[in-house]
């Protein structure tokens, strides 16, 4: 999928160092994913997509799915690309994959991440619960959000 100069393509092991750089930039007060965590996600066959501006990885998103449910593991967009529709592109790609399977999808989001919460609500997610001190070591709370299965 391509929109303007941003292209979506499967995330590759070669992208992992850049993913880790983005994690460090976006989540300095918490526990950013390690390179090993990304390699493990890719090795386990989970669905990961990258957003590229030319050859530069500017964001990524990941999803684990079974025949019963799906879970958004991550959506991240480097700072200067935020607010330009890249996160929405990544989310829509994940949701298209979920809708092919026809299962509900769940995620956690920081309670203070208002732009992400608004994006999720605009795509049919509802707040289901609160996880106190979910993000560590900052102790930030997270909402659990879900979207029912959609028929294709």
UniProtKB/TrEMBL annotation:
It is found in: Cytoplasm. It comes from the Bacteria. Acetylates the N-terminal alanine of ribosomal protein bS18. Belongs to the acetyltransferase family. RimI subfamily. The keyword Acyltransferase applies. Keywords: Acyltransferase, Cytoplasm, Transferase. Coiled coil: none annotated. This is [Ribosomal protein bS18]-alanine N-acetyltransferase. It holds the Pfam family Acetyltransf_1. It is an enzyme of class 2 (transferase). Its main location: cytoplasm. InterPro entries: AcTrfase_RimI/Ard1, Acyl_CoA_acyltransferase, Bact_Acetyltransf, GNAT_dom. It catalyses: N-terminal L-alanyl-[ribosomal protein bS18] + acetyl-CoA = N-terminal N(alpha)-acetyl-L-alanyl-[ribosomal protein bS18] + CoA + H(+). Its EC number is 2.3.1.266. Residues 6-150 form the N-acetyltransferase domain.
């Amino acid at each position: 999928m391509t929109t303007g100069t941003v292209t979506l393509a499967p995330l590759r092991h070669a992208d992992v160092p850049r993913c880790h750089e983005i994690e460090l930039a976006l989540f300095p007060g918490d526990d950013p994913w390690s390179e090993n965590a990304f390699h493990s996600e890719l090795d386990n066959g989970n669905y990961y997509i990258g957003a590229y501006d030319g050859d530069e990885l500017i964001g990524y998103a990941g999803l684990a799915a079974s025949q019963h449910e799906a879970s958004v593991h991550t959506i991240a967009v480097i700072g200067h690309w935020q607010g330009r529709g890249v996160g929405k592109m990544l989310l829509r790609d994940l949701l298209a994959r979920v809708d092919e399977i026809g299962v509900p999808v769940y995620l956690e989001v920081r309670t203070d991440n208002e732009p992400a919460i608004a994006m999720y609500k605009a795509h049919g997610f509802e707040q289901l619960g609160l996880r106190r001190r979910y993000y560590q070591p900052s102790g930030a709370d997270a909402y659990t959000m879900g979207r029912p299965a959609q028929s294709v």
